[in-house]
């Protein structure tokens, strides 16, 4: 690992995360090696790598999205999915209550 990564890390700043992600992407280390060396769960490092790839993809777009726009779009998508799930749940409850009343 590089000199930046050799010191004992107490707090994972964005710069340190970026350095580790870059080393993984460049093949200088593996996710499992980093996980063992820094005593971090592999899933956490995987999420950093995915975040880095998303950020890199956005930065290379012709019209990069603002981080706020990304979160607002993601929030809107989640709200729509939640609304659809609630409608389905209400419909199922309504159907169950109607079927329950017909049986008595």
UniProtKB/TrEMBL annotation:
InterPro entries (alphabetical): DUF1153 (IPR009534), Trp_repressor/repl_initiator (IPR010921), WH-like_DNA-bd_sf (IPR036388)
Coiled-coil regions, chain positions: 61-88
Keyword Coiled coil carried by entry: yes
Pfam families assigned to the protein according to its UniProt record, in alphabetical order: DUF1153 (PF06627)
Species lineage: Bacteria, Pseudomonadati, Pseudomonadota, Gammaproteobacteria, Lysobacterales
Keyword set includes Nucleotidyltransferase: no
GO molecular function, one term: sequence-specific DNA binding
Protein name: DUF1153 domain-containing protein
Keywords: Coiled coil
């Amino acid at each position: 690992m590089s000199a930046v990564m050799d010191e004992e890390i107490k707090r994972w700043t964005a710069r340190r995360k970026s350095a580790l992600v870059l080393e993984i992407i460049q093949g200088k280390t593996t996710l499992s090696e980093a996980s063992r060396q820094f005593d971090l769960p592999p899933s956490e490092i995987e999420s950093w790598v995915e975040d880095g790839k998303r950020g890199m993809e956005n930065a290379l777009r012709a019209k990069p999205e603002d981080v706020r726009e990304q979160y607002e779009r993601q929030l809107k998508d989640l709200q729509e999915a939640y609304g659809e799930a609630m409608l389905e749940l209400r419909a199922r409850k309504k159907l169950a209550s109607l079927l329950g009343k017909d049986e008595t």
